[in-house]
Amino acid sequence: MFDLDHLRSAMWHLDGHPVRTLDEAREFIESVGFCLLYPRKPPVLVPTFIGAWAGSDDHLPDRHHAFADPRAQQATDLMVRLLRERAAYEANLFEENNAFLVAGSIFPYFYALVGERNPRQAPKPGPRSGQSQLVCDLYEIIRRDGPISKLKLQERLGGSISFAALDHALGELWSKLRVTRVDYSAAEGASWDLLYRWSPDAVREGIGLSVVEALSALLSKYLDCVIAADQQEIEAFFGNFVPRSRVREAINALLAARELSFIHAGNRTLIQITPEKPQADAAPVRRPQRA
């Protein structure tokens, strides 16, 4: 019987086997490929880092209530250690203060879909670029002084910029993977740097990948993470950073190539990675008979 919930529970470490050490965290993020720090509403079909840390999905806090849950700080501390060593990367995909983590091994594919193809070219203000002067000033300060904390960024900007405006501008740069959070301290909060300077090899590899190649690889990794999903669930996830029409095209191409296939679970038709065919046992060796 195809027990989807049981399979996901084991892979996502919700079965009483928590992720607590750095080695376990590395193995977890590499296994699943993607995860959110906290669950969100409406739910997204990906695991959560705090769920893996807790070993359960029972009464997990969302980002609004994380401050009151001691598990949140402990899970965040472990997540930051992953970011520091580039075993995982953070993306501004769903909501502020709810990290979306991408495993280091597949991050170049994610960058190929989301990131700038010419990251060394600084953003320019104006109606054509859609960038504000604050965004451009912020980029230049991070380029010159980064890694740099948000508190020091506000000081460099003269102290008159509100944290809300600063967060909005950082979010614009982050959404295109121009900048990334690289560290965190209780005294000064998150520190920011230019992504291409923080992780040049990953950015260079991402620039060299085509959109079709990147999307196909990420679709396969996503289905490996969730075991199986219906097409609407797949489109809902990837639609956060890729047009849904492209997702449908990629799914159809992988189905046609038989890299993906359909599976029935109850009254649902799901898509999965096509299982490898078992190899036929080797023919028995006939021994010569004695005369």
Explain this structure to me?
- This protein is an alpha+beta fold and 291 residues long.
- The protein contains 13 helices and eight strands.
- The strands form three sheets. Strands 1-3-2 form a three-stranded antiparallel β-sheet. Strands 4-6-5 form a three-stranded antiparallel β-sheet. The chain has a two-stranded antiparallel ribbon with strand order 7-8.
- Helix 6 packs across helix 8.
- The radius of gyration is 22 Å and the shape is globular.
- The N and C termini lie far apart (52 Å).
Walk me through the topology.
Layout: H1 4-11, H2 22-32, E1 34-36, H3 49-54, H4 70-84, E2 88-95, E3 98-103, H5 107-114, H6 133-145, E4 148-149, H7 150-156, H8 163-175, E5 179-185, E6 189-194, H9 195-198, H10 200-207, H11 211-226, H12 231-238, H13 244-256, E7 260-265, E8 268-273
Antiparallel strand pairs: 1-3, 2-3, 4-6, 5-6, 7-8
Keywords:
three-stranded antiparallel beta sheet; 291 residues; alpha+beta
Offer a quick outline of the entry.
This protein is α+β, with helices and mostly antiparallel strands.
Order of helices and strands: HHEHHEEHHEHHEEHHHHHEE
What structural class results from the helix and strand content?
alpha+beta
Radius of gyration: 22 Å
> What is the global morphology?
globular
From the N-terminal CA to the C-terminal CA, the straight-line distance is: 52 Å
Major pleated sheet:
3 strands, antiparallel
Mean pLDDT: 91
- Uncertain spans: 285-291
Which range does the strand content fall in? 15-25%
Number of helices: 13
The tally of strands reads 8
